[in-house]
From TrEMBL:
Residues 169-254 form the Nudix hydrolase domain. Its EC number is 3.6.1.22. Keywords: Hydrolase, Magnesium, Metal-binding, NAD. Belongs to the Nudix hydrolase family. NudC subfamily. It comes from marine metagenome. GO terms for molecular function: metal ion binding; NADH pyrophosphatase activity. Pfam families: NUDIX, NUDIX-like, Zn_ribbon_NUD. This is NAD(+) diphosphatase.
Length: 254
C-alpha cells in the first residue's frame, strides 16, 4: 500500500491539455461554480475550527484583485469543478489590513497543513509553490525583459519577440535520509532555531550529475563526517518551501 505523505495525494485533475486553450480557461474562470483560493503573502485563507479547511471564494469576491493585476493560476478540476488560486498580496503589506478577513483567517501553509485534511494540504502546496514561483520570475532570465504568464500559469514567456524564451515552474530535488547503523540506531540532527526536543533526518539538495544515492552519501559525510554505504529509496514528498521534491531514503552507515 502506497504511503501518502503530507502535501501529497492531491484530488486535483490538472487538465494539462485543456489548460493550453485560453478560451477554455476563460470559460472555467466564469463558471459560477468555480472556486478561488486566495493567498496573501503566501498565507492561505482558511476557515478556522477544530479542523482547518480551505476558504474557497467566488469570482466576485476576488475580482477586484484580478482586475488590479493579481496573478491567477489554474489549479485544475476537482470532481469536474474548476479551481484557481489568486495572489492578493499587493492589496496590503500589513496583517491588520489584510484583505478578505470576513471570509476566513490567513494562516501559514506549513501551520495549516498540520490541522487540515490531506487533500487540502496538497492543494495548499500546489498553490503556494506556483504563486511563489510567479512572484520570483516576472522577468526573463535570458534577456531581462518582462515575461508573461501562459497555460493557466504553468509557464511564462518572454515578451521580447526576438527572445521569446519559455520558462517553466521549477521543482528542486532534495534527498532526505534516515541513517541507520547495524543495530538500527538512527542518526538525527537539529539546528539551533529548532524548537526544544525537535530533531530531523539529514537532508540536502541534489547537485547536477548526481544520483539520489550519491547525494545521500555526500550530504551525510559533509554534515556529520559519516560514510554511508547502501542507500535505499523509500518514497517522496512535495515540499512547498518554496518548491522542492523530498526523496526519502534509508542509508546504512559503514
Amino acid at each position: 500500500m502506497e504511503l501518502i505523505n503530507t502535501f501529497a495525494g492531491s484530488p486535483v485533475n490538472r487538465m494539462g491539455n485543456e489548460r493550453r486553450n485560453k478560451d477554455w480557461l476563460r470559460q472555467k474562470m466564469d463558471d459560477p461554480n468555480t472556486g478561488f483560493l486566495p493567498l496573501w503573502q503566501l498565507r492561505a485563507l482558511m476557515m478556522p475550527g477544530e479542523n482547518l479547511r480551505i476558504s474557497w471564494c467566488q469570482k466576485q469576491e476576488v475580482m477586484p484583485f484580478i482586475t488590479a493585476g493579481a496573478t491567477v493560476v489554474f489549479l485544475g478540476q476537482i470532481n469536474g469543478i474548476p479551481h484557481f488560486t489568486v495572489d492578493v498580496s499587493a492589496s496590503s503589506d500589513q496583517k491588520a489590513n489584510a484583505p478578505l478577513q470576513d471570509y476566513g483567517k490567513w494562516i501559514d501553509v506549513r501551520s495549516a497543513a498540520a490541522s487540515c485534511s490531506g487533500p487540502d494540504a496538497a492543494i495548499l502546496a500546489q498553490s503556494r509553490s506556483m504563486l511563489d514561483w510567479h512572484a520570483r520570475h516576472g522577468f526573463c532570465s535570458v534577456c531581462g525583459q518582462p515575461s508573461r504568464l501562459g497555460e493557466g500559469g504553468y509557464n511564462r514567456k518572454c515578451t521580447d519577440d526576438d527572445c521569446a524564451a519559455m520558462h517553466f515552474p521549477r521543482t528542486d530535488p532534495v534527498t532526505i535520509m534516515l541513517v541507520l547503523d547495524d543495530e538500527d540506531n538512527c542518526l538525527l540532527g537539529r539546528q539551533k532555531f529548532f524548537a526544544p526536543n525537535s530533531y530531523s533526518a539529514l537532508a540536502g539538495f541534489m547537485e547536477p550529475g548526481e544520483t539520489i544515492e550519491e547525494t545521500a552519501r555526500r550530504e551525510v559525510f559533509e554534515e556529520v563526517g559519516i560514510r554511508v554505504g547502501e542507500v535505499r529509496y523509500i518514497f517522496s514528498q512535495p515540499w512547498p518551501f518554496p518548491s522542492s521534491l523530498m526523496m526519502g531514503c534509508l542509508a546504512q552507515a559503514e
